[in-house]
Design brief:
By secondary structure, this protein is of the alpha/beta class. It has a single domain, classed as Glutaredoxin, CATH 3.40.30.10. α2 links the parallel β2 and β3. Pfam families: Redoxin (PF08534). This is TlpA family protein disulfide reductase. Keywords: Cytochrome c-type biogenesis, Redox-active center.
């Protein structure tokens, strides 16, 4: 009887230690491509030290997949960061139909007529997001992302805080 209780106690302690060890693990940072150089100038965007410029479309399945996480990030971004979404939809009505009304105001959404902005940023696939800090290209995030994850938020906070001369360094 005592040995059964002792075995059970050890199993419970072992499970607790394993759970604490797992909870203390840090997630690896999300992948991205390091960029350097001046960013193309964007007219009529929020004045902010850092912009996450997102190229997106309502008809793009990976874009639709990341929309809830992108929305959460846009509604509560790291300090100094604003999200700006450029839609590849034909017109604003298609976007409004997707959102069942006006797009979220925190998206600062614009329809990229003729895909001019996408071309100026070298965007060839959707979704693609580019982090611009102090007018300089910092990082490219191709494909859908879990924008609201702790790891992504930590990465965005770190990238928006680093000095301009670090932006030309290697990717993490």
């Amino acid at each position: 009887m005592k040995s059964d209780a002792l075995i059970l106690t050890w199993r419970v302690l072992t499970l607790c230690l394993l759970a604490m060890t797992w909870a203390c693990r840090s997630e690896p940072p999300p992948s991205y491509i390091r960029l350097a150089g001046p960013a193309p100038v964007l007219a009529d965007v929020p004045g902010s030290r850092a912009l996450l410029v997102v190229f997106w479309a309502s008809w793009c399945p990976p874009c639709v997949e990341e929309t809830p996480q992108l929305r959460a990030l846009a509604e509560s971004p790291p300090e100094g960061l604003q999200v700006v979404v450029f839609s590849h939809d034909a017109d604003a009505r298609a976007v409004e139909s997707f959102f069942k009304g006006p797009p979220p105001p925190d998206f600062h959404l614009r329809v990229d007529v003729g895909k001019k902005v996408a071309r100026s940023y070298g965007v060839e696939q959707l979704p693609t997001s580019i982090l611009v800090v102090d007018g300089r290209l910092v990082a490219r995030f191709p494909g859908p992302r879990d924008w609201d994850s702790k790891a992504m938020r930590r990465l965005l906070e770190r990238l928006t805080r680093e000095p301009a001369d670090r932006a030309a360094g290697p990717a993490d």
